[in-house]
Write a structure and sequence with these properties.
Helix content: 25-40%
Bound molecules: pyridoxal-5'-phosphate
Radius of gyration: 21 Å
Largest sheet: 7 strands, mixed
Oligomer: single chain
Number of strands: 12
């Protein structure tokens, strides 16, 4: 069994995919152009926003968003300590200071109730992360943002397609960021990302930024970067995007099966479902209340791969030591890091494998307790 099997998806899409790739090679337009534009239009429509701008990665999408908002030296950006490193990295790359707020232990997402006490005169932006595919509590977050005139960037790298009270993520805040890293729900065959917004000024900035701050060839209005979504990746994503909703629904069914089979197990807590929100399960992550690492080793020996997202919260990362957080600063994120375990989930994962994984988990706790 594999933790994630991308080959199965390729085999199912093979004729369509080979045609799309061949057409791109035959056309030989590799940088921007109609294939990228087609994908951007489809993405904007999918998320229910006016503008989508393809970039090189989810990380660049986040960095572009901060720079578009004018964030830099002296500014503070509030985010969650329980995410992939890039969420905090981009704040420092922009020249600003990340401020971490502890998580809601039931959703693993930023706790809106802890945000206000960390707002200062310098706070400019909130970056909620829709971790594992579950939207953050956006109503509360947007209310705080309005009250303090802060911008909101949604880190939806793991959550493309999930909805919050009927609206797709990336249409809720000022800007949304998505990653097409191969393991995300909509994965490219390499790196890729997109910025989504309704704001024409922010969109225009990102459109220039990704091409060296230029819109008229060889005239540079500001210093940007080289960060475009490849036409080849856009061609691949154009094939995949129409399948995303059904893939996400299948992931949710697989998650439901895990949750129902794990119901009798007192030692694990299954992912919480929140009314009004859909979860797209980029990860199916349980909380293991005792002996998490022993369970992971036991499953490994039985041929069941698992993963820990994330073993070390951001405020304790060696690279962020200078921010001055200590063990105990954000206890709920630290506890999550010690207890989480992600089980295999992807649309093509056979239900028999889910049953086998759960049986092994139940066996582990019955043998050793
Ligand atoms: C994957 C991911 C990113 C970064 O995306 P890349 O495309 O790998 O740069 C950012 N934030 C979160 C929460 C992610 O999961």
């Amino acid at each position: 069994m594999k933790f994630l099997d991308l080959q199965k998806q390729f085999i199912a899409l093979k004729p369509e995919m080979e045609k799309a790739i061949r057409q791109t090679l035959e056309r030989s337009e590799f940088i921007l152009g109609p294939t990228v534009e087609k994908f951007e239009v489809a993405m904007a429509q999918f998320c229910g926003v006016r503008y989508a701008i393809g970039v090189n990665s989810g990380t660049d999408a986040l960095l572009a968003s901060l720079l578009a908002l004018g964030i830099g030296k002296g500014d503070e950006v509030i985010t969650t300590p329980f995410s992939f490193f890039a969420t905090a990295e981009v704040i420092l790359l922009a020249g600003a200071k990340p401020v971490f707020v502890d998580i809601d232990p039931t959703t693993f997402n930023i706790d809106p109730g802890s945000i206000e006490q960390r707002i200062t005169k310098r706070t400019r932006v909130l970056i909620p992360v829709h971790l594992f595919g579950l939207p953050a509590q956006m109503h509360e977050i947007l209310q705080i943002a309005r009250g303090y005139r802060l911008a909101v960037i949604e880190d939806a790298a793991q959550a493309l397609g999930s909805t919050y009270q009927g609206k797709r993520v990336c249409s809720l805040g000022d800007i949304g960021c998505v990653s097409f890293f191969p393991s995300k729900n909509l994965g490219a065959y390499g790196d890729g990302g997109v910025v989504l917004t309704n704001n024409p000024k922010l969109a225009a900035f990102v459109r220039k930024w990704r091409v060296h701050g230029s819109v008229v060839k060889y005239i540079h209005d500001f210093v940007g970067v080289c960060s475009r979504l490849d036409a080849l990746q856009a061609a691949i994503l154009n094939v995949k995007l129409p399948h995303l909703t059904s893939w996400n629904a299948t992931r949710a069914k697989k998650a439901l099966l895990y949750t129902s089979l794990l119901r009798s197990c007192r030692s694990v807590v299954t992912p919480s479902s929140v009314p009004g929100l859909t979860h797209v399960y980029n990860q199916y992550t349980i909380r293991v209340k005792e002996r998490r690492d022993q369970l992971a080793n036991y499953l490994q020996r039985k041929g069941i791969p698992t993963a820990i997202y994330y073993p070390l919260p951001l405020h304790l990362q060696p690279a962020l030591r200078h921010l001055g957080y200590r063990r105990g600063s954000l206890p709920l994120a630290e506890r999550a890091a010690a207890e989480v375990l992600s089980l295999p989930i992807y649309p093509e994962l056979p239900n028999t494998e889910i049953r086998r994984s759960v049986n092994s988990i139940l066996q582990f706790f019955s043998q050793t307790s």
